[in-house]
Specification:
223 residues, mainly alpha
């Protein structure tokens, strides 16, 4: 691996953070807009999102400083202060997520977890391969396989009301994810304008264009 040379911008987001970020973004957009609910592709992407989220959460404990939860704890009051600074066009900068960005990240992760859990419940925890086999059996009119699947489903079946409630959570959560994603992108763009630097670049290339100016509430900031 090449060693950084003097003058290189400091690394901000490592490969695990960047890959998990874009994997989740792809899953959310594809499953909300492109794929059909319950289809094998939809389920495959859901499992990919679950794996990406799990890796990112583990990395929040084991990863480098900027990726750890301790670097961007949820602080609602600090988030409000940061938003006020942003509206004035002078937001403070942080080595990891700013307080408002941190609150958005936790909201996105929580909503994604609810969508994934409700999806697993709706499919009975079936893997993408099992869902594909079930759909293939229906398409081929394989009544023996359909009957076997139905018998298995009945053993773990939700009541109609329970299934409706879980489905509502899944659909509402998916829509909320899109709204949060739009707000997240809007916040990044607004902050980029206020700071006069491209804040999307670090999530693609992994480094800043120039060193950050430490915010007064940043972990490790001088008091």
């Amino acid at each position: 691996m090449a060693r950084p040379v003097a003058g290189d911008p400091p690394v901000l987001w490592d490969g695990v953070v960047r890959i998990s970020h874009w994997a989740v973004a792809t899953v959310v957009i594809a499953n909300a807009i492109i794929t059909d609910g319950g289809s094998p592709v939809h389920v495959w992407l859901g499992w990919l999102g679950m794996i990406a989220l799990a890796i990112r959460l583990i990395w929040g404990i084991l990863g480098p400083h900027e990726a750890r939860f301790a670097s961007f704890p949820p602080r609602p009051r600090a988030a409000i202060v940061h938003m006020a600074e942003l509206l004035r066009g002078k937001p403070s900068e942080y080595p990891s997520h700013n307080p408002a960005g941190a609150m958005m990240i936790y909201a996105l992760w929580s909503t994604l977890a609810a969508v994934i859990l409700s999806g697993l419940i709706l499919t009975g925890g079936a893997t993408p391969m099992e869902v594909a086999r079930q759909n293939a059996a229906v398409a081929a009119g394989d009544w023996a396989a359909i009957a076997a699947n139905s018998a298995s489903d009945e053993e773990q079946a939700l009541s109609r009301g329970e299934r409706h409630l879980v489905g509502l959570v899944h659909e509402t959560g998916g829509n909320l994810l899109l709204i949060l994603a739009v707000l997240h992108v809007g916040g990044v763009l607004a902050e980029s304008v206020a700071l006069r630097r491209n804040l999307i670049r670090p999530m693609v290339a992994g480094n800043r264009q120039q060193p950050f100016r430490k915010g007064r509430d940043a972990p490790g900031a001088d008091s």
